[in-house]
Amino acid sequence: MGDSSREEICAQLRQALELRAKYCEKLPPKRSSFPKSGNLELKWQDGLLQVREKGSEQSLFEVPSLDEYYDDMNTLFQIRSSGPVSSYAYQRLRLLQTKFELYTMVFGDQEAQDAMETGHRDFYNVRKVDTHIHHSAAMNAKHLLRFMKKKLKRFSSDVVDVKDGKERTLKTVFDDMGIGWTDLCIDRLQVWADKSCLHRFDRFNNKYSPMGQNELRTIFLKTDNAMGGRYLAELTTELISDLEESKYQHAEWRLSIYGRKMSEWESLSKWVLGRGGKGCGKALLSPNIRWMIQIPRLFSLYKSTGQLDNFGQMLENIFTPLFEATLFPEKHAVVAEFLQHISGFDTVDDESKSEKPVDRTFSSKSRPPQLWDIGDNPSYKYYSYFIQTNLRLLNMLRHQLGLNTFDYRPHAGEAGEVHHLDTAFLLADGINHGLNLRKSMGLQYLFYLAQIGLAMSPCSNNQLFLAYEKSPFPVYFSRGLNVSLSTDDPLMFHQTKEPLMEEYSIAKQLWHFTSVDLCEMARNSVLQSGFDEETKATWFGSKDYRHENKTTSTNVPNLRIAYRKRVYQEELHLLEASADDTDDVGVMCNLLLLSPTRRLQQSDFAGFGLDSEPKIRPFAAALPGEDQDLSTLMDASIQQESLQEEMGEALDWSVRTSHGPQSSKISKIVSHEILAIDQKNRKGSFDGISHKGAIPVITRDYSEHSMVMNEKTKEEFLLRLNHEFAAQRASQQGQQMLSLGVAVLIGCLSGALTTWLVRR
Fold first, then answer.
1. Do 386 and 264 lie in a common domain?
2. What is the DSSP annotation of 226-271?
3. What CA–CA distances, in Å, run from 198 to 312, 411, 494?
4. What metabolic or biological pathway is this protein involved in (predicted)?
C-alpha cells in the first residue's frame, strides 16, 4: 500500500472492525410476531441449518455466505499485514504500554491505599472464573491418584469393562497390568507434562492416559463407557465440592462432542443430569460451574475409520439435535434441559499442524461440506465458519424464543499460523491462548480495539510452546488487552488443590503484579465468562456492571477502571481522526508536572465519570523563559483558596524533587508572589511547571480566562526569588561558620582539660 496518512490507516482499521461486526454483532431484537415452533421447519443448505416457515423457501435469519466470508478474510489479511498499519499499531501499542507504566508510577500508591480502604474485600474473595479448563483434566494428579487408589482398594469388584462379551472388574484390569494399589504413585501415573512435550502435541495428548494406558483413560476419564461414566461423575462431584467450598472460584468445564453420531448429545445430557443410568445418579450442576462444549477438529480421523462420509454429516450430527431440542423441547427434554446449563462452544486440536497450500490460498471455499468427502482435514478457517455460523443461527432462534444463547470461544493463536487469529477476530467472542498475537502488531491492536477476551494459560504454554518468561501476558495486560488467567489442564500442569489460585500466584511472583492487577484480571475473567447477566450483576454489585464499578465487589479501584476506559476511548477518538497525536504528550506531561493533589483533582483519571465521554485536550510543552500557550486540562475557573493551597504544594513538591530538601519558606513565598499576580489579573489556571536552572517558572496562557507572567512581572518575581535564595544561602553560611567556631572551641577546651588531667 505504500506510505499512508494516519487518516487512511485509521480508515482501514475501522473497516476491519466493521468486518467483525458483520459476524459478531449483537442479536437483533425480538420480533413482535414470530412464528410458532409448529409452523417452522429445518433445512440444511450448503452446510448451514436454515430455519424456515413451512412452505417457504426464505430463511428467517440472514448470515454472510462462505464466499463473502473468504473475501472478508482476504480483506482483513491485507489490512493487518500492511506495513503502515503494522507500524502505526506498533506505535500505539508501545504508547499504551508506556502510559500504563507511567500511570502505575504516579498512582500506584493511591491504588494500594484505595484497595486497603475497601474493607473486607481482597483478592481471595473476589469472583474469578477459570474460563479455559478441560473437564477430563480438571483435577490435579494427586487427586486422581487418590481416587484411583480408593477405588482399587475398596471397590475392586466394580465391573468397569466388557471385553469379548465378558465382564471385567477393576481388579482384573489392574491385575492384567501387573499393578496393585500399593504400586500407584504420581510418577507412575505419567500425567505431568515434561520437557518431552515441548512442541510435541502428540506426546502431550498421551498424558491424558494414566500410565500410558488408554483403557484407564476410558474407565476413569470418559463419560461414555461400560459404567456410564460413573467414575468421572464421582470425581466431578468432588471437584464441585472443592469449588463450592472456595465460594469465589468458578469454572467453565469443557465436555467433548465429536460429531460422529447424533446420539452423542442425548448420552452426554443424561450423564450431566444423572439420568438414564448415566453418571452417578445425580445432576452435576452448581452455581460455581457452567459447561462448555468443545468440538475436536478430527474429521480426517473419523473419515479414515469409516465413521463419517463427509464433513457435512459431521455438522449435521453436531447441530441438528440442538435445533430440534430448541424448537421441540418436549421431544428432546433431556437435551433441552442440558442446553440451559451450557455457556459456550469451543473448537480444539493441535494448531501447530501445518495446513496444505490449497487452504492457504482460500480455494477450499469452492467445496461445500456435503462434498468434502476427501480424507484431508478442512482448514481452521473452514471449520470455524461453519461451526460459528450454525451456532449464530441457533442463537438467533433461541433469542427469539426467549432462551439462553451461547458464546463462541475457540482455541486460537496457541501455535501454528497467524491467520488462525484472523479467523478468530472475525468470528470469536473470545479466544483461548492468543500467543501468536505477539507476531502481528496489526492484529494485536485490533484485538485491543475490539476488546476480545483472551484466556491465557502461561503454565500450559511453558510446557508446550513458549517458556514462561517469554509469555506476552504481562505486555498484553499493560497495554490494556482484555486478558485473564486460566489453567487449561490442571492434571498436567498444576500441583495444588486450587490450580487457578496457583496460576495467579505464579504470575504474581514472576511478573510482580500488584493485588489491584490480580483483581483486575479476575474481573476480566468474569466479564469473559458465559455466566448469565443476572449472576454477573450480583457478583459485581450493579446491574450496569459494564459501566459502573463497585470497589466493594471487585476490589478494583475506580482510578484503575477510569484509566482503562479513558485511554481506550482516546484510541477510539484517534481512530475516528478526531484527535491529534499530541494529546498523548499532554497526558504524560500532565502526570509528570502536576503536583500529587493536582493530579488527583484535575487529571482525567480521578472522578472521571464512567458513563461520560473523555474530552481529549491538546497540551503544548512550555519551554523555560518563553511565554507559550498551554491549554487548560479541566475548567478554567479555580477557587481562590484552592489555587493558593495547590500552587504552594506544587512548588514545594517541585523544589524538593529537583533540588533536594529546601526550606518550605521559598515555596510559600513563590506561592504568595504568584497569588499576588493572580489577584491583579483575577482570572487564571495553573497548568504546569518548567524549570530554568534552579528557579521554578510558572507558565500561563494569555486569554480571556487566564493570564501569563509578562516580562516585567517575571523579572520582579525572579529578582525577589533570587534575593530569597541569597538570603537563605547567607543564613546557611552563617550557621556553618557558627557551627565551625563552636566545634573549634570545644576541641580547644577538650585538649586543655586532657592536659590538666595528665599533669595531675
1. yes
2. TT-SHHHHHHHHHHHHHHHHHSSEEEEEEEE---S-THHHHHHHHH
3. 34, 18, 17
4. Purine metabolism; IMP biosynthesis via salvage pathway; IMP from AMP: step 1/1
On the 0-12 / 13-18 / 19+ scale of CB atoms within 10 A, 728 is middle
Question: Residue 730: how many CB atoms within 10 A of its CB?
Answer: 10
Q: Are 296 and 349 in contact (CB under 8 A)?
A: yes
Decide if 555 is inside a domain. Answer: no
Query: Is position 295 within any domain?
Result: yes
Asked if the structure places residue 84 within a domain, the reply is: no
- The full DSSP string for 136-153 is GG-S-HHHHHHHHHHHHH
Q: Which helix (H) or strand (E) holds 699?
A: strand 695-699
Q: What is the pLDDT of residue 563?
A: 95
The domain spanning residue 361 has which CATH number? 3.20.20.140
The range of the structural domain enclosing residue 290 comes to 95-531
Residue 306 backbone zone (phi > 0: left; psi -120 to 50: alpha; other: beta)? left
- Residue 703 pLDDT: 34
Return d(Cα 95, Cα 570) in angstroms, integer: 12
Cross-strand pairs, 38? none
Model pLDDT, residue 569: 92
Q: Are residues 517 and 655 in the same domain?
A: no
HEC secondary structure over 708-759: CCCHHHHHHHHHHHHHHHHHHHHHHHHHHHHHHHHHHHHHHHHHHHHHHHHH
pLDDT score recorded for residue 719? 62
What is the number of domains present in the chain?
A: 2
In angstroms, the CA 593 to CA 563 distance is: 18
Residue 59 DSSP code? B
Which of 531, 546, 567 terminates a domain? The answer is 531
Asked if the structure places residue 434 within a domain, the reply is yes
**From CA 50, how far away is CA 58, in angstroms rounded?**
9
Rounded (10°) angle between helices 558-575 and 6-24: 110
What DSSP designation does 378 have? Answer: P
Q: Residue 747: its pLDDT value, please?
A: 63
CA distances from 143 to 130, 185, 191, 236, 237 (A): 18, 11, 12, 11, 13
pLDDT tens, 359-411?
444 456 678 999 999 988 999 999 999 999 999 999 999 999 999 999 999 99
pLDDT of residue 729: 63
Nearest to 570 by CA among 583, 558, 554, 559: 583
Task: Judge contact between 275 and 267, C-beta under 8 A.
Answer: no
* β-pair type (159-163, 166-169): antiparallel
Torsion over CA: 568, 571, 576, 581 (sign)? positive
Final residue of a structural domain among 477, 503, 531: 531
Q: Would you say 219 and 204 are in contact if contact means Cβ atoms under 8 Å apart? A: no
CA 638/CA 706 separation, integer angstroms: 11
Residues of the chain whose pLDDT is less than 50?
A: 1-2, 357-362, 579, 582, 592-596, 599, 602-709
DSSP label at 329? T
What separation in angstroms does the CA of 478 have from each of 102, 412, 482, 564, 586?
A: 11, 21, 10, 10, 20
Torsion of CA 565, 567, 570, 575, to 10 degrees: -100
- How many residues are present in the chain? 760
Grid cell of 317 as nine digits: 450430527
Active site (catalytic) residues: 433
